[in-house]
Amino acid sequence: MMYPPEYLVMIPGPTNVPYRVMQAMLAPIINHRSDDFRVLHRSLQEKLKHVFQTENDVVVLTSSGTGAVEASVVNLVRKGDKVLIPVNGEFSERLARMIELAGGEAIKVKAPYGSIPSYEQVKEAYENNKNIKALYVVYNETSTGTRITWLDRVKDMLARDDSYFVVDAVSNLGGDDLPVDRWGVDICVTASQKCLAAPPGVAPLSLSKRAVKFMKDNPPNTLYLNLPRYLKYYEENAETPFTPALSLYFALHEALTIIEEEGLDARIKRHKECAKVFYDSLAKMGFEHFAEPSCRSHTVIALKYPDGLEDKRFRSTLANEFKVLVAGGFGELKGKVWRIGCMGEVNGYHVKRTLSSITSTLEMLNAKVKATTTPSLN
Amino acid sequence: MMYPPEYLVMIPGPTNVPYRVMQAMLAPIINHRSDDFRVLHRSLQEKLKHVFQTENDVVVLTSSGTGAVEASVVNLVRKGDKVLIPVNGEFSERLARMIELAGGEAIKVKAPYGSIPSYEQVKEAYENNKNIKALYVVYNETSTGTRITWLDRVKDMLARDDSYFVVDAVSNLGGDDLPVDRWGVDICVTASQKCLAAPPGVAPLSLSKRAVKFMKDNPPNTLYLNLPRYLKYYEENAETPFTPALSLYFALHEALTIIEEEGLDARIKRHKECAKVFYDSLAKMGFEHFAEPSCRSHTVIALKYPDGLEDKRFRSTLANEFKVLVAGGFGELKGKVWRIGCMGEVNGYHVKRTLSSITSTLEMLNAKVKATTTPSLN
């Protein structure tokens, strides 16, 4: 089998992985029940707490982001539980479905794809319902390029029922504001291959003390996704209950080291700046943004296809002629929308090369989208 | 953080990973919804079918072996289902617990640790119970170093109720006999980091057509471990439903290529030969085997500690002075038993270096175990 070429990976995950992080996967194989592992585990815990901005424990699952999101559901939602959830895209739909599979009643606050439910709508739904067990929010809807803008305001609202606050930040933690403790997030879920810029396959999630207490008192019908079981092994021996993806642990550790070196605030600022250049430049080119201006994601840029620009032809030309990967639409947006991942390492070079390649691709395809010069970014 | 030293990894997984397989993790990051991935996926499918000796589809989960074992349970076992299961160690106990968590009734056929229930005992249990949904077997009990010797005989027995036949071969597929189709195995589960000699984090499992039909008709309450969902994505687009651990996919692909180059039969023979040398030589040294001779594993050698040889001191001396890793006991055997993984790359060099290092360690510790010369192996 031929190995694939080296692309500029501008899809919304996996994203470009820095050289140092790739090399870290070559760390020697160790016994996952040994001091060699304990050193790795403890250091990883500290670094994860930093990027989650939390004092809570952080469990690392060997799974995709969806596995960790499912863990946040099956450990917390029980039969008959009322769960409030804004729904405005494929991933929030999927999360609502998981809540229902777990026996919960998903009270959906819907908004058209490309927009978000307002805080007032969610507050009204909360006020109209009694005994809300939890608010689950997909912070950054990868399918539509939107972000929920009011997460800093829900803590007080949830005090009425001591409702749990769960945030799916799979596609923006590390690239967007998310002070877990300050915002009172009980469970925060992310994955390695998005803004953390590590390879896919491991997914960390932070757990508040009261969430852990509930889970211990009400254990789920799963071993592999049983989160208190992970914490028990962490506490007793600084080990995992099941064999972890060691090479990906080393890679994630190196990726988090890079984040510390850059500084989390600087990293988030860089994501926002790069996203702004993408939004401004692509609008100048004549592309129409899919997301409304007030709720545009800093990490996923979603664009509508103009008439005459065909999804597969556009993206395959970009990939084959320029080695630049962008993503198509997801679910019902397939063929109508394309997306850029603005994640992880993303910097001026990535932005310029992507925009330049898009410009040239449009010329090659004779697409009727306004041309522009490539903007500059420091 | 300092990286760990390069050990000879003689624990029952993870095991030594060949250089080529480690390097394969450095394959460029690709879009997991692209032709680059489809090429990888299809080639991986072919190679997995070869090593599973099956025409069945093989699902690859991003998880540890336990995750895949749990998938084999939650997709097949429903409330009230009667499931027959031999129990003779920690992993079969754990599997029985998973069956109960899924609402099944686990009919345990027990044997003392170090031995296995006989075929006759299992047959008797089958005959004494009606409507047996499935027989679940941990083929190779990693915790005790035993293997079930009669798997080739159950197919006919299970015909009475059309019972499903599920084999947990996490710690011996690729290093022991397991013709999935010939033996009529409906679900066969393994993991990357054992006899396949890839890094941990992905776990393949084969699914018979009738098992898939049941799962489609009776979908489980999970998305992440929903096996028919994987097959649907495989069939429709040669994609995975959730982001796969791409780097580990490339590594597994390279590991399976090595198996093809060696030949599966030769590989299994090599495992058996290496295991025999371990058993014979360690007995000559004065160690007592934990497993009974008739059911000793070809991939995990379990040994009792003689009086005066302390677990932690023995294994840390081997690790620190000779860079050889062996494992301790698991669960209730902790401190009483130690184990050697005879897996994957294992060859004469591994065997000799391990035995030589053990001999020297015993001398250093003045342990009263009969000394011997290091045996030769071609």
UniProtKB/TrEMBL annotation, chains A, B:
Superkingdom, taxonomy of origin: Archaea
Any one GO molecular function term: L-serine-pyruvate transaminase activity
Family in the record: Belongs to the class-V pyridoxal-phosphate-dependent aminotransferase family.
Organism: Candidatus Nitrosocaldus cavascurensis
Listed Pfam families: Aminotran_5 (PF00266)
One biological process term in Gene Ontology: glycine biosynthetic process, by transamination of glyoxylate
Stated name of the protein: Putative enzyme
Matching SUPFAM superfamilies: PLP-dependent transferases
Enzyme nomenclature, EC number: 2.6.1.-
Domain Aminotransferase class V: 30-329
Keywords of this entry: Aminotransferase, Pyridoxal phosphate, Transferase
UniProt-listed InterPro entries: Aminotrans_V_dom, PyrdxlP-dep_Trfase, PyrdxlP-dep_Trfase_major, PyrdxlP-dep_Trfase_small, SP_NH2Trfase/AEP_transaminase
Cofactor (UniProt): pyridoxal 5'-phosphate
